[in-house]
User: What shape does this take?
Amino acid sequence: MDLIQTESQLNPIENELFSKITKELRCVVCQNQSIFDSRALMALSLRHEIAEQIKEGQPESAIIEFVVQRYGPEILYNPPFQVDTALLWAGPVLMLTIGVLLFYKIGLKKFQTVQKTPL
Amino acid sequence: MRSLYIIPLGIFLILVCFLWLGLSLDPKIQPQAKTIARLNQTLPAFRLTSLNQPEKEMTEQIFKNKIVVLNVWASWCSSCRAEHATLLSIVENKQVNLIGLNFHDTLKEAKEFLKTYGNPYQEILFDKEGRLAVKLGVRGTPETYVIDKQGKVQYRHSGPLTEIVWQEEILPIVRKLNENE
Assistant: This one.
């Protein structure tokens, strides 16, 4: 197929960049699969476009920007930290902090109660 | 002190809400499908061929100086078959330039499709590799775009076109663009 041919024309360095970029991008029509893994038609077209842009000498950032402009930041497996993704990034840390604080408060109190209780 | 025990319960309930919201989303409906897709952006430059005249080169020039409804379709796409009757009635009854973008298809099968179901398109771009589709931000077939006289994308509809979508969403946009001339 013509689409795969473009990928096979990439030299080893270009191929490495190709793998890196396509692994960072989510397939837009299938769930939980990267463009690197997917063989959906839409993913094949995106792979073709990315391979072409690599051959043209476009830098990684420009290629990623091209895709994000068209498919939105949700296509990135690693979305940038910005207002609408703040909860996504800070959420786990926030949860952990709350958990530690609770553990400290409740756990410590119980520990002290146990210690104070005469045997 | 007892109130502290309510916090984990509260967090748990919030997480349940997020999970419930997430699971209730239809994975087929793409988020921001209408807002992204190069809205208000000029169509990208492209070089494709015509489906009916493979020797004829087609460029972005075919969108110049006219309001165009661009429909992305393929012969293998069952939803495209579902919307085909709507497309035929649109061109039959109303004044609209309907251009097709044939996506990931073979000439033979695409032509057979049109022979069987009828050809509503003025012109069809044959995009075998989905190159223009990717530049447009197409997520799947069928999709329908309204492109103004300056060649800018003014509207996008994802999924089969129905008479209701045509009457309530697309036609008002086409009319408004015509008035703004």
